[in-house]
């Protein structure tokens, strides 16, 4: 079955022009998909088409181009709402990236509704984008940040009371442990990623929501890593906020998406202010615009949003069934090959259960940067470093890891290239 | 061409001047916090010459090879010449093929060394505190503080050390009384400063 899926991949490979290029004279093997994904021809064409035929600012002009641009922009909002299972288009806000979307939650919701002594729970496995805004918010208002720990496999500790401990860092007491043990009647927000950008683990959001919901705790999810790889239905998940990024799911750079539950967004003041987010301004007062425009001050990346709609359409056409089958099969193959290499330390689970094709590892004492450079010389693009996740790196006790991350256009040959590249590195530096 | 030329690999696998220096003049730490590369540079300088250097650390092949190559390059050289080494010299030393993303790895040795040179400079400034003795200083105070100056003063025929005039005369005034020129006075002040700086070492 694995072979059959890969055989059917030819059409998909042909859709991505960049995969035809070479790097250092070698075929490009792109395994840095957790950083950004490549774009199908349709998305590239959509950007070009917009600038060649439609380019105009939205929401204000009366002329034909402005009308067309507005229609296309707002149509993408409809498609995005549908794609993520939002109950209405008003719940979809376009931002410049997922980081801005997460900051929007911390600022618009957090600053308004959190009080000194309130508690925010984040996980140790967060990308800085879903860690720092909460730390900063806590600092501003005198709230407390608590941290969900990981188990030996790297999975988040949701239930139970074990591991609860205090540790002093920068003279601040930070409580770290199982989510259940961290929740108190002062807990207001749980900010958690849907999948780890380092370990590839898919977190059990349903379990988090089950704990949070009855207590009226807001659940804000960083879906940047998960959304490209699995069907997301924010309604079924029952989350209050869900942030993700266009460029990590075949769309252009410069566009982020925030889903927010309508009743919550309605209560929040704007995040940034300016044009398009107000109804009326007088010298004395201002009246905010309706959702979702209240949160979209200034001219957005209109072409980017329109082309993002095309990316969503592309994913829909390939279909989640095929994407999931392919990624699971490819991930399982990559995993089996990686763990066979002696001297390779894999961080995260050794099975594909609730796991994405994101593999962080260290190899033979070779520094991750050296691995990345040696692989690059073979045309293979991987990531090395701390992956904007210092707390997790510290928890794992490493400074840096190498990370290979896969997507729907990767093949068995890519895995094989990675493995032989690693063997070359071992020969050179090991 | 590979970044990992034979020379780089050789230095990485067989680092030169690796270790510690018990009698180092200064020892400094350098770190690339993002990737965890760390190193320590120990410098032993005397009379403006870097007599000895040792380094230690852990990190990627580029940062380690860079430190090893740099240590070979600076050992036994004049501190003044070492100070004139630039970032681009380092990149050239490493083969000039360093990609942007690895520049920090290659330059860690350079940054650490410069921290050391800065410290060295300030250390030496303390020992020779830009001319601690000036011609406006009182003779008897100078002799009381640095008895070793007595000999120098005698050589310049300032035998008034013990005489009552020295308790209120400046070095300059005393020297002039003995008919010394401005140049001779400056020379004497220099010699006095040298004598006290040597004593300190």
UniProtKB/TrEMBL annotation, chain B:
<dbReference type="InterPro" id="IPR002871">
    <property type="entry name" value="NIF_FeS_clus_asmbl_NifU_N"/>
</dbReference>
<dbReference type="Pfam" id="PF08984">
    <property type="entry name" value="DUF1858"/>
</dbReference>
<dbReference type="GO" id="GO:0005506">
    <property type="term" value="F:iron ion binding"/>
</dbReference>
<dbReference type="InterPro" id="IPR023883">
    <property type="entry name" value="CHP03980_redox-disulphide"/>
</dbReference>
<protein>
    <recommendedName>
        <fullName>NIF system FeS cluster assembly NifU N-terminal domain-containing protein</fullName>
    </recommendedName>
</protein>
<feature type="domain" description="NIF system FeS cluster assembly NifU N-terminal">
    <location>
        <begin position="4"/>
        <end position="118"/>
    </location>
</feature>
<dbReference type="Pfam" id="PF01592">
    <property type="entry name" value="NifU_N"/>
</dbReference>
<dbReference type="InterPro" id="IPR038062">
    <property type="entry name" value="ScdA-like_N_sf"/>
</dbReference>
<dbReference type="InterPro" id="IPR015077">
    <property type="entry name" value="DUF1858"/>
</dbReference>
<dbReference type="GO" id="GO:0016226">
    <property type="term" value="P:iron-sulfur cluster assembly"/>
</dbReference>
<feature type="domain" description="DUF1858">
    <location>
        <begin position="133"/>
        <end position="185"/>
    </location>
</feature>
<dbReference type="GO" id="GO:0051536">
    <property type="term" value="F:iron-sulfur cluster binding"/>
</dbReference>
């Amino acid at each position: 079955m694995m072979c059959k899926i890969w055989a059917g991949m030819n059409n998909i490979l042909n859709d991505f022009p960049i995969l035809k290029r070479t790097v250092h004279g070698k075929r490009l093997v792109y395994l840095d998909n957790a950083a950004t994904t490549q774009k199908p021809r349709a998305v590239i064409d959509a950007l070009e088409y917009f600038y060649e035929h439609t380019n105009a600012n939205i929401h204000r002009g009366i002329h034909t181009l402005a009308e067309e641009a507005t229609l296309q922009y707002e149509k993408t909002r409809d498609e995005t709402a549908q794609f993520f299972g939002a109950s209405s288009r008003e719940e979809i806000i376009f931002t410049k990236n997922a980081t801005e979307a997460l900051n929007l939650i911390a600022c618009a919701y957090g600053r308004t509704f959190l009080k000194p002594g309130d508690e925010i729970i984040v996980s140790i496995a967060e990308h800085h984008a879903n860690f720092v805004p909460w730390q900063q918010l806590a600092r501003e208002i005198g709230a407390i940040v608590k941290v969900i720990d990981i188990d030996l496999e790297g999975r988040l500790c949701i239930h139970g009371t074990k591991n609860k401990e205090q540790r002093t860092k920068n003279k601040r007491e930070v409580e770290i442990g199982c989510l259940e043990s961290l929740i108190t009647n002062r807990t207001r927000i749980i900010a958690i990623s849907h999948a780890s950008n380092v370990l590839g683990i898919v977190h059990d959001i349903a379990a988090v929501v089950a704990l949070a919901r009855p207590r009226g705790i807001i659940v804000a999810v960083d879906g940047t890593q998960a959304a490209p790889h699995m069907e997301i239905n924010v309604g079924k998940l029952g989350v209050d906020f869900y942030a993700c990024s266009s460029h990590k799911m075949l769309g252009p750079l410069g566009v982020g998406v925030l889903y927010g539950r309508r009743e919550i967004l309605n209560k929040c003041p704007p995040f940034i202010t300016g044009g398009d987010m107000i109804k009326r301004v007088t010298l004395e007062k201002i009246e905010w615009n309706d959702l979702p425009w209240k949160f979209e001050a200034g001219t957005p990346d209109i072409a980017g949003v329109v082309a993002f709609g095309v990316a969503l359409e592309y994913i829909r056409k390939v279909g989640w069934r095929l994407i999931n089958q392919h990624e699971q099969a490819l991930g399982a193959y990559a995993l089996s090959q990686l763990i066979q290499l002696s001297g390779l330390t894999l961080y995260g689970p050794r099975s594909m259960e609730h796991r994405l094709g994101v593999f962080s590892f260290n190899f033979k004492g070779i520094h991750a940067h050296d691995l990345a450079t040696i692989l690059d010389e073979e045309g293979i693009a991987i990531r090395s470093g701390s992956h904007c996740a210092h707390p997790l790196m510290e928890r794992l006790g490493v400074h840096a890891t190498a990370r290979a991350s896969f997507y729907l256009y990767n093949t068995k040959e890519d895995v094989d290239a990675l493995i032989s590249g690693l063997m070359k590195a071992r020969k050179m530096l090991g | 061409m590979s970044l990992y030329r034979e020379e780089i690999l050789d230095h990485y696998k067989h680092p030169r001047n690796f270790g510690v220096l018990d009698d180092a003049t200064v020892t400094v730490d350098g770190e690339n916090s993002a990737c965890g590369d760390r190193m320590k540079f120990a410098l032993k300088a005397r009379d403006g010459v870097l007599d000895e250097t040792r380094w230690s650390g852990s990190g990627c092949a580029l940062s380690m090879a860079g430190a090893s190559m740099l240590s070979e390059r600076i050992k036994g050289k004049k501190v003044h010449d070492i100070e004139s080494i630039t970032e681009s010299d380092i990149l050239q030393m490493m083969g000039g093929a360093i990609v942007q993303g690895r520049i920090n790895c290659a330059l860690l040795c350079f940054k650490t060394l410069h921290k050391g040179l800065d410290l060295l400079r300030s250390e030496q400034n303390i020992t020779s505190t830009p001319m601690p003795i000036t011609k406006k200083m009182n003779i008897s105070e100078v002799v009381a503080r640095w008895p070793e100056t007595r000999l120098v003063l005698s050589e310049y025929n300032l035998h008034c050390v013990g005489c009552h005039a020295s308790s209120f005369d400046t070095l300059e005034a005393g020297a002039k009384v003995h008919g010394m020129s401005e140049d001779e006075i400056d020379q004497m002040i220099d010699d006095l400063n040298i004598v006290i700086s040597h004593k300190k070492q």
